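Look over both lines:
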Amino acid sequence: MRPIICCDLDGVLWRGETPIAGSADGIAELRAAGLRVGFITNNSSIPIAGYVDKLRAFGVPAVAEDVCTSAQAAAALVASKLAPGAAVLACAGQGVVDALMERGLRVVDAGPVEAVVVGFHRNFDFDRLTVAADAVRGSALFVATNLDPTYPIAGGLVPGTGALVAAVSTAAGRTPEVAGKPERPMADLVRARFGNEGIMIGDRPSTDGAFARALGWPFALVLSGVAGTDGEEPVPDPPPPFVAVDLARLAPLILKSLPGVS
């Protein structure tokens, strides 16, 4: 059985709204060799349909079943602990709202809640911090979509979900349960969707590399995001099995390692 290729998005296919040169060609090369490619992201802000549209706009054909997000992992975690219809405060973007509703949970902006989910969103402010921290300080289940400190964009980095989670956690005096890479809820989601054999492509060793280890898969590192001499994280020593400056150069390395694939 051929392995699934699971590919991170931010820092691998794009930086913000700027595509990384050659990334679409790298995906096309993997697919042309008969490999299925799935997309795994910790950025929970965008709904699944939005990711499908963005992938297609950047030259990568995709359908909803190809994409797994930390929003979906967080919603699955909450749904496993609360009854259908439970009130959940989404201190997060539309991707989290949609994922929670798809699990039969009731998304609210304020009032008594049974859970708080914190994910990446650009309208996080003092008022949203206050509401979320007040709920977490009580007995609400506290879930973070992920703890990535930054996300790569064209020309640099922006604060990631981990920065927002840290604010809520500090204000509330509680630590969250984490759903996204490299934690088990995301691993369970990926295995259920794609199976048990794969290769994980990513740009962040501390997240994508750790996720590959959690799955028991090889890690393929691209230096187009947060890792490398100009990035936020160093290349691990020893390095992972596959390392390249970008996805276009990584794809041939992966293909050469797979017997019977050309």
Q: What stands out?
A: Residues 4-41+181-257 form a domain with the Rossmann fold fold (CATH 3.40.50.1000). The longest helix spans residues 70-81. The chain has two domains: 4-41+181-257, 70-178.
